[in-house]
Amino acid sequence: MPLTMARPARHNAEYFSHTANLRNDRRIKAIRTQCGATGYGVLVMLLEALTDANHTQLDTEELELELLAGDFGVSVTEIHSLLQIGEKVGFFARNTAGFLICPDLNDWLAEVFEKRNRARNAAKPPKSGVSVTETPVTVTENPQSKVKESKELPNGNSESKTPPTPGVGVFQKKIGVPVSEVEPWADAPSESPPVAPPPPAWLEEARELAAGMYGFWALTHLQADAQRRVLEFVQGRYAAGAGPQLAEQFVAYRAFKTESQERAHSWKNWIAAPGDGQLPGWQEANWPDKLTTYRKTTHEKGTPTRRSPVGADASQRHHLPAVVSFAGDAA
């Protein structure tokens, strides 16, 4: 019997199906409102690309986005804008590896992968018939069969044929499929689409902080690349466990620059060092202490400030509130 090789496992699909009123989904309406009909077309093309990609996930690094933009015939900025609002409303998400996924698409494709797995499992030989060991069986006499006592051979000799004694054990091989022919199936991986892990607990707070930075530096959706870099920087700090420190630094920095009317850093120099051994703006000073010192000095001199100090005591340290809200900050 020829050796049957396992068909290579597939982790993508050739099609996806969705409801006819997808455009009226509240999340899709939010995307359409911000990105227009062109954005809806880009969204559908992203779903097609995800469907065709292994494990229905996409790398969205800068080079990959450039390639996608060339494929879709749109700018990288348009894709950035769509992904930003798409992730914000929850239609798109990120898995633990940072790849782009669409939980809804994985639900739509679940039936496709399940059907493929059923077909693969149905083709697997039953494990119960694999054994090639010899098993003793007992042969009993069939009353409806007659056994010839002798058989005449062509040369005139005869061969005596004596039926086995009832109850005497004989060995008989079980007929089955050799183990070597089913081994390729044994390690066949599951083809179900990966389940998106729950987002980290700090994700919403990181997005809020990033939105505050968008507002402070007037980064609109037309500057999607700048917004993306700021968001990645903030998420990186939160992932490293330094999110609260960054938030406290930014809130104090924003208050200090606003009240003192000093020139602010550029957003690039705030998140990254400009070079020549300099520190990035967020690490350049202890901004809560600097704000406290400035307010105390200003209060003692009696010089009015653009914003009232936090609390009744102008010399108190500027602490981040328990709940930070940058609503309305984003341009």
UniProtKB/TrEMBL annotation:
Bias kind Low complexity: ranges: 130-141
One Pfam assignment: Lin1244_N
Domain Lin1244/Lin1753-like N-terminal: 15-95
Residue segments, region Disordered: 119-170, 297-319
Protein name in UniProt: DUF4373 domain-containing protein
Organism: Hymenobacter nivis
